[in-house]
Amino acid sequence: MFNNVYKNRKVLVTGHTGFKGSWLCLWLRMLGAEPVGLALPPETQPSHWDLLGLDMRSEYVDIRDRVKVREIVEDSQAEIVFHLAAQPLVRRSYREPIETWDVNVTGTVNVLDACRNSSTVKAIVSVTTDKCYENNEWVWGYRETDRLGGHDPYSASKAAAEIAAASYRRSFLDKGNQLLATARAGNVIGGGDWSEDRLIPDLVRAVKSGQNLEIRSPAATRPWQHVLECLSGYLMLGEVLLSGERKAAEAWNFGPEKEGNRPVEQVLQAVKAQWPAVEWHRSASPQPHEANLLYLDSSKARELLRWRPVLSFEETVEMTASWYQEFIENEAVSSIRQLEQYCALASQRGVAWSGAAA
Q1: Pick among 3.40.50.1000, 3.40.50.720, 3.10.530.10, 3.40.50.620: CATH of 2-282+293-349
Q2: Any idea where the NAD(P)-binding domain is (predicted)?
Q3: Over the stretch 125-154, which tens digit does the pLDDT of each residue have?
């Protein structure tokens, strides 16, 4: 997979204790990489990171600590950095706007600056979000060249992180041999996410406590995708950067096929079909502003990277629901098995990164 580019390669992952970061570290270990993690301790119990129990170096550091970040980047001897550490929650950003801006912008600048001063880093994939675009509630998908913006502090801070990354690329990295790309993914679901104010984790907690879930915006449409889909894009992008392809050092969208753009209520109905215990009702209380309609156009990644999703919407929901079912009913962690199944499906379906013939 990925032309064996990660085998025996030193990789730094910021935000490794989070939902996406822990899955990425699991995949990197499967690929034979030597990952080092830099993040705060897990914020939830249970946490996917703790459940995996991966054999790798893990440093609990706040990315706002500029000196410590630089020390770890240099000491890791990493050739590629995947920057995922962030304050990733929209509703929390309303409660803690200063922290959100500080982590997502200053923290990102600290990581990028440490990378540019590193003697080993060749490539950086800085992860932001589909919400970094100025949302006009368009019925078509946003492209990488569309205007950045954001209503809430989370979305706006991620747009600012994109601008910071572009500045570092033009001011410093383009002058040397380090390549920096940013990655914007859709609404990511999958087993092991226990974050607050996210649809699937909230639903799982409601099922476990025997309650109905209160839904804020059942008609809100999002580009739903499994966590492994966007991670395959990040890894593919990292492979291209490590090969020295300077044209890849820019922004990239990684979203589902059009059929993956679904209202929240359709996602709930699909989960319930897999897991009958799921119940919900619409909230009657006023809610802070969140976008109602959001699509991503991932044509560039499909055409230039030959990246494409592996799973259908139904397969995405089934894989997600079954992970939580197995965990709640049997205390089983099926992450390794699901990753192996996903890679096998990618190979069967001729997806480029899997090594199969397209």
Answers
A1: 3.40.50.720
A2: 12-320
A3: 999 999 999 988 777 889 999 999 999 999
